[in-house]
Design a protein that fits this description.
Elements: E1 7-8, E2 11-17, H1 28-32, E3 56-63, H2 74-84, E4 88-93, E5 98-107, H3 109-120, E6 125-130, H4 163-167, E7 177-182, E8 199-200, H5 205-208, H6 233-242, E9 259-264, H7 273-283, E10 300-303, E11 305-306, H8 315-326, E12 330-334, E13 354-359, E14 377-380, E15 390-395, E16 404-410, H9 412-429, H10 435-444, H11 467-473, E17 477-481, E18 484-487, E19 493-500, E20 509-519, E21 524-531, E22 539-547, E23 550-558, E24 569-579, E25 590-592, E26 594-602, E27 610-614, E28 618-622, H12 637-649, H13 660-665, H14 675-686, E29 711-715, E30 725-734, E31 738-747, E32 753-760, E33 768-775, E34 782-790, E35 799-810, E36 818-829, E37 834-835, E38 838-841, E39 843-846
Length: about 850
């Protein structure tokens, strides 16, 4: 068997740093500082701060000297919450004559700043600002931490992975295991207690250099040979992932709590792919013949190794990675150190791995690092031509083990465990994340490469891994309420409540609870709350109370079966607001809608980290009315044309999931678009009275009951041979004057029939107009919609006779007979009321060659 070595992905240029090195004072200000946003234009005293600050539910308010208000009084509390657009209560008096106002729920620091700015605009207020929550920034006391620049907060000249702030979020979780597929590891004071039992997968005794083949001891005996000393490579990689931290000595690891699974696959001169493939599956908890099952399956697999061949040349590699990923592991691999395109290396070019390129301290690509489109992300791997490399745990022995020490290496091998460590922190926060979700979060939160960097997004991924950004994003569900526009005197104006998860991340919401508050004196009233297509099967409960000049609606959305809303974004609820046409509602008024007391729960009842993206949208009241379909503040022939096209060719929306088009086009609120709406639109355009428009500008509703008499519509029988054409007639017998007819015809267009025109005839004369549309003409479900209406809303008098002609063509190779069925018929009265109708003869048979006729059962 040919031994193709898997090379260590590191540069073995060693700078020794002894454990007895003097303690270096850490500069905490380096990590605690964070940039400020620009001051708010509304209140120059308020700076909108980044949302890496903790949420707060309090605002500090200071009143101007000499102002005679009682801050705790009901009237002043109402004034403050109306100005802010959010429900509030008085908290307490402070020293310095300031006061604390409390929100119903915590909001992000930036949203609290926005609310404070609104309060500060009140004439009686001197200043207002969020009651910020201070927190310590965690800096481990490891004596060599100051030399681990690769962990620092990114600043000009030092592009670390932003770990100090990330450690304030989580330092890891004991249930998460990170496998290190490498040379094995050595006992080291900074790795004591950090591992779970691993395995030595090296089969070849010469390669193993420990006197035997596979066994349960993953200790590194040294990989010396082939002209190199022992690298103790796996020990270095393991130290970056999880060195014992905050223990007053040595270095810190990325993850302080989770466990490391040492898996030995590399020995003298490298390692066989067959051993690595078995190790990948075993690490993920999958069975491997002849090996005891892994009692501690890894959620993250680090592979700082590789060979100079494309993954397509080693299908067994991809197969093992696919299996591990399917088992729930995320595989992180090194891009390689050949200054070449990573597409020619494995496992860097495999699918469903996170391939990591290396950057130096300045944020440029390390001179040795592979690159290319297969790279998912970059991380500090050191570039000893300009920096000190990556410092981690090692051993001073040149062949066999000697004294433990700390050494700086450079390589994509050193970059990879930074990413694997960050992934383990993400999974500590959100264990349900899969490979796709992890990649999405890493890439969306990466630190951008600095200007002039030799790394670009085309060759090094979207940026340098940002631990804090990734943790902030992982598992976070954004929640917001969309802006809306209401028309005076209308109902069912839609405001949508949306949730959005990080790209690719399934946050698994099973329940939502919140309050929405808005003033009660602006002519707006919430009339209904309903679920959307995204929450089909969910239950919604709401209750509205009126108090202190505010409507407050409590909303509860939940799944009775604890089903989860999938990843993605979009509306989960809709508010239907009525806008009064009474003097209390003025066109142009904006109604603030404020969200408070928000809580999201997952399928286990655990709270979900939430980011409120829009706490105070506004609902604009305008002078529009139904009939202005295109929102140009006019009802004209453009709206009429839009509505006609909607009726003829648009699919009818599900009434349980309304949209603006649905609301605007359904003028009589019968949950459909049809000829009745068309007659209303014609009369609105012509300036004629519309008695039957259910939702008018005056807010009144009126429905007209149709006269109880019989109308009949039928199609005349046609017998046409292949290769011929002609017309079929629509016959109408009506006992009530009509102003419009809508007719749907269905037929099998694959049989050789084509309907080509719909036109007026006989009694309809010039009093009306027609329109027609054909959909799915080449399928068995072709449809023609015929629409006739009086252009001035005038009525066709009662009587009997032909009304429409429908032209047809029959192909020369047609097979018949072919049926044309009336699938829907609607008559509208001159007041746009629905008229009774019967389909007397709902089918036309177009005759064909009798020898080729198909049985009716096959139509």
């Amino acid at each position: 068997m040919k031994n193709i070595p898997s090379k260590l992905i590191s540069r073995l240029t060693i700078v020794a740093t002894l454990a007895s090195a003097p303690m270096v004072t850490t500069l905490q200000a380096t990590y605690a500082a964070s940039p400020q946003r620009e001051a708010s234009a509304q209140n120059p005293l308020i700076t909108t701060i980044p949302d890496d600050n903790p949420p707060t539910n309090q605002i500090i308010v200071k009143y101007k000297a000499g102002v005679s208000v009682v801050p705790s009084g009901l009237s002043q509390v109402n004034t403050v919450q109306t100005a802010a657009g959010a429900a509030m209560n008085y908290g307490r008096a402070m020293s310095g004559d300031a006061h604390v106002m409390r929100l119903g729920a915590s909001v992000s620091a930036s949203d609290a700043s926005t609310l404070a700015a609104r309060i500060a605009a009140l004439p009686e207020v001197e200043y207002a600002h969020p009651d910020f929550i201070a927190k310590p920034t965690y800096i481990p006391n490891d004596t060599l931490f100051s030399q681990q620049w690769h962990y620092f907060t990114p600043t000009v000249g030092t592009y670390g992975i932003n770990l100090p702030s990330a450690w304030d979020v989580t330092k890891g979780d004991s249930s998460i295991v990170i496998a290190v597929l490498d040379t094995g590891i050595l006992p080291h004071p900074d790795l004591a207690g950090r591992t779970v039992p691993g395995y030595d997968f090296i089969t070849d005794v010469t390669t193993a250099q420990d006197g035997n083949g596979r066994d349960s001891d993953p200790t590194d005996p040294g990989d010396y040979g082939c002209g190199s000393n022992s690298s103790w490579h796996g020990t270095h990689v393991a130290g970056t992932i999880g060195a014992l931290s905050n223990n007053g000595s040595g270095v810190a690891g990325v993850n302080h709590v989770s466990k490391i699974l040492p898996v030995r696959v590399l020995g003298r001169c490298g390692g066989y792919t067959s051993d690595i493939v078995d190790a990948i599956r075993w690490s993920a908890g999958l069975p491997v013949s002849g090996i005891p099952n892994n009692a501690n399956p890894a959620k993250v697999i680090n592979m700082s190794l590789g060979g100079g061949y494309a993954c397509s040349s080693a299908p067994s590699y991809q197969s093992a990675i696919d299996a591990a990923t399917a088992a729930g592991a995320t595989v992180v691999v090194a891009a390689g150190n050949s200054n070449s395109d990573a597409s020619g290396f494995s496992p860097a070019s495999c699918n469903r791995v996170i391939t990591v390129a290396s950057t130096g301290r300045t944020g440029s690509r390390a001179y040795y690092s592979n690159y290319g489109a297969t790279v998912e992300i970059s991380a500090p791997g050191g570039d000893m031509s300009i920096d000190s490399g990556v410092l981690s745990t090692l051993n001073a022995g040149t062949t066999t083990a000697g004294t433990h020490n700390y050494v700086s290496y450079q390589g994509t091998s050193m970059a990879t465990p930074h990413v694997a460590g960050v992934v383990s922190l993400m999974l500590s926060l959100k264990p349900s994340m899969n490979y796709t979700q992890v990649v999405a979060v890493l890439q969306s939160t990466a630190t951008a490469f600095p200007g002039g960097s030799t790394c670009t997004t085309s060759i090094c991924g979207p940026g340098i891994v940002n631990a804090f950004g990734a943790l902030q994003q992982a598992g976070k569900m954004a929640f917001g309420v969309s802006n809306g526009t209401g028309n005076l005197g209308t109902k069912d104006n839609i405001v949508r409540v949306s949730t959005a998860s990080p790209v690719g991340v399934n946050t698994g919401i099973a329940g939502v609870q919140f309050n929405v508050a808005y003033p009660d004196n602006l002519g707006v009233k919430m009339s209904n709350i309903r679920t959307t297509a995204r929450t089909s099967g969910y239950t919604v409960i709401s209750n509205t109370v009126q108090s202190g000049g505010v409507f407050t609606t409590s909303v509860l959305l939940y799944s009775a079966s604890a089903a989860a809303i999938a990843a993605g974004s979009g509306p989960v609820l809709e508010f239907l607001l009525d806008v009064s046409a009474s003097p209390t509602a003025t066109a142009g008024t904006t109604v603030p809608l404020s969200i408070s007391n928000l809580l999201l729960a997952d399928t286990t009842g655990t709270p979900i980290q939430t980011e409120i993206t829009t706490t105070n949208p506004v609902f604009n009241i305008t002078a529009l009315r139904r009939g202005d379909i295109n929102s140009d503040v006019n009802v004209n022939v453009q709206d009429l044309t839009i509505l006609r096209n909607m009726i003829l060719s648009s699919p009818q929306p599900n009434p349980s999931y309304a949209s603006d088009w649905w609301t605007r086009g359904d003028l009589n609120s019968d949950s459909t678009w049809n000829i009745l709406d068309m007659i209303i639109e014609v009369r609105l355009v012509m300036g004629l009275p519309v008695a039957s428009m259910a939702k008018q500008a005056d807010g009144n509703s009126e429905r007209i009951t149709s006269q109880l008499n019989t109308n009949k519509v039928s199609l005349a029988t046609v017998n046409a041979m292949p290769g011929t054409s002609g017309s079929m007639k629509v016959h109408l017998s009506n006992e009530t004057n009509i102003a419009g007819l809508q007719l749907n015809l269905a037929y099998d267009a694959t049989r050789g029939l084509k309907l080509t025109n719909v036109r007026r005839v006989g009694r309809s004369g010039e009093a009306g107009t027609t329109a027609w549309a054909v959909s799915d003409e080449n399928s068995a479900q072709a449809k023609v919609t015929a629409l006739w209406y009086g252009v001035n809303g005038e009525a066709l008098s009662a009587g009997d006779g032909d009304m429409l002609l429908i032209d047809y063509e029959v192909a020369a190779n047609a097979t018949g007979p072919i049926s044309v069925d009336i699938s829907q018929a609607i008559l509208a009265g001159e007041r746009a009321d629905a008229l009774p109708i019967q389909v007397e003869s709902g089918k036309v048979i177009v005759g064909g060659n009798a020898a080729n006729a198909l049985p009716s059962a096959e139509r």
